[in-house]
Amino acid sequence: MDGLIDRIPMIVAVAIPAILAITLHEAAHGFVAKWRGDDTAWQLGRVTLNPLRHIDPFGTVILPALMYFTTGFVFGWAKPVPVNFARLHYPRRDMVWVALAGPGINFVLALVSAMLWGLTGDQAEGIGAWFRAALEVSVLVNVVLMVFNLIPIPPLDGGRVAVGVLPDALAFPLARLERFGMFILLGAFFLLPMIGREIGVNLNVMSWVLGPPVDWVIDVIRVLSGNS
Predict the structure, then answer these.
(1) Of 26, 125, 136, 198, which residue is the catalytic one?
(2) Which of 59, 62, 95, 206 stands the most exposed, by the fewest C-beta atoms within 10 Å?
(3) What residues contact residue 219 under an 8 Å CB cut-off, 6+ apart?
(4) Is 209 buried (19+), middle (13-18) or exposed (0-12) by CB count in 10 A?
(5) What residue ranges are annotated as transmembrane (predicted)?
């Protein structure tokens, strides 16, 4: 019990940036959808900074907590913001802007967090040290969320961007993958590594796909925030 109590400050330092990142990610989708003609999310009260409107009990709370305590890695999702793409002014083009809004706000959050981190001292103690740690977590969480969502597989944002910009011959088959997209991702990121551990082969697709772009984006943020 004492060990768990000791970890509460760090758990909170992880939870707050993660909830903020997910909340603003989803709200940004709804805001841009309204701007481009579809107010579905707005009418349902999903264009809000209230995290309770976006939290999925399993994907946002239970699964991330289980993974944090068992693997140290945090993965989860929020309730997706409903968008009626047919109501957008220019459905195919505007779908791209709606999709990019989520990763875009995550990049902004990561950049602002890095700028604030640069204003804190590395000798900070108490609440100052906690705040500095939370900012570090915020940079990493937002960059990982941005990069993950830009994977070009529907229903991720990157998949919707790809469907919107690719020629029809490629866009239509990719769009039809949406019903299987989450199963593909879960299999690639969780099932394959489990199989790899059993057969003694590194099948950690997560590190292959996310590692290099996450490192690159963090390097860019360091430069832009003056922390390089």
Answers:
(1) 26
(2) 62
(3) 228
(4) middle
(5) 54-75, 96-117, 129-151, 180-196
CA–chain centroid gap for 41, Å, is 19
Measured on CA atoms in the order 38, 39, 44, 49, is the torsion positive or negative? positive
**DSSP secondary structure of 8-42:** HHHHHHHHHHHHHHHHHHHHHHHHHHHHTT--HHH
Amino acid symbol at 24: L
pTM: 0.88
Handedness of CA 63, 159, 81, 216 (dihedral sign): positive
125 is annotated as an active-site residue: no
Q: Which of 34, 14, 208, 21 is nearest to 130 (CA)?
A: 14
